[in-house]
């Protein structure tokens, strides 16, 4: 998928452009760009270019692919009177009205993380039965260690037995980022693409996995080595899920939020710097406590800003045609680190260790002042995130960057902060800079980070 480079103005051979029109249910090619008249039912955005050379004939198909998906905040998604989970993905008002008038029961297949099932299973069952849904709930241990093609195939097998309509009955994934990734891949494989819905139950999934198009599983001891770019039909965000996850997992999600703050939004950085500890204490819930109105404003402001900055970067580059991606900050070294020490580090924790080191690289390159670097590190520690790990060796860093070269067109494409809330992509960071930054990082954070 993605952009197809094709120069229609190349005159080395004879190219003929054909539009595609549908007449009485049959698609036909029509010469030239103007293809509509009174007899035509539909005109496709696709084109066929026919090329004739002395070597023969070839056809080039240019077919735009458009995905539309919704990211929707809601409250009390498991309240039986809230139909968002069942119907919130439908954008056609007539289709929605027809479904509501129909006597045919809705049919849904749901995959839920088994730990989430322990907490919310009874409420989910009550919700589905109250809405007279024909359903199947599949609880699975969706941990990083189990993030495999075998689990994706297990989901596909159960979906096949349940017999879903592949266009109108979306699979629903309820859980953290691992659950959303695996279900997304399974849905993309079943009947080549079955719609699915994401319902994140962790903060990290709320602001990261739920808003993009990536799906995937681990393979050959590499993180997300197999996957596809198939966005969900919709993502439904309910902050109330966050109140039942451990404090460490909230801190884990704050790492991805901090990533966007450092890269793109100084205001978000300052919010996390000032209110991060309060967000941890309140678990992003609007509750009456010593923090007062600050809590009511900071939580939605932080999540919405993080999501919006993430969507700004993802929407124009959903299939990663452009490999220069600011959202890769913290993701050059962390995949290898995370897999190396699995399961001792959570994803966001590994990302933060990567970011911490890269902040030292920025300082060594003269892109950040000492004050800016120290503010970032103090903010990380304030969010209760690790800033150093003994397994993040210079050898692992070099290996990760070599792997980066292989998969990024021969360039490192290293996102680095050039201020608070500003970043650029660099391809010219020398080994000497990396090594000096590493030595200072280890000297300053390896033994003394607890006092920051």
Automatic annotation (TrEMBL):
Q: Name one GO biological process term.
A: antibiotic biosynthetic process
Residues forming the 3-dehydroquinate synthase C-terminal domain are 253-403
- CDD domains for the chain: EEVS (cd08199)
Q: Which Pfam families match?
A: DHQ_synthase, DHQS_C
Q: Which spans of this chain does the record mark as coiled coil?
A: none
> Which cofactors does the annotated protein need, by name?
NAD(+)
Kindly give the Gene3D superfamilies that the UniProt entry links to this protein.
3.40.50.1970, Dehydroquinate synthase-like - alpha domain
- The 3-dehydroquinate synthase N-terminal domain extends over 140-251
Q: Name one GO molecular function term.
A: nucleotide binding
The cross-references to InterPro entries, in alphabetical order and at most eight, read: Dehydroquinate_synthase, DHQS/DOIS_N, DHQS_C, EEVS-like
SUPFAM superfamilies in UniProt: Dehydroquinate synthase-like
Please provide the record's keywords in A-Z order: Lyase, Metal-binding, NAD, Nucleotide-binding
Asked whether the UniProt record includes Nucleus among its keywords, one would answer no
UniProt keyword Nucleotidyltransferase, yes or no: no
Query: What name does UniProt use for this protein?
Result: 2-epi-5-epi-valiolone synthase
> Taxonomic lineage per UniProt?
Eukaryota, Metazoa, Chordata, Craniata, Vertebrata
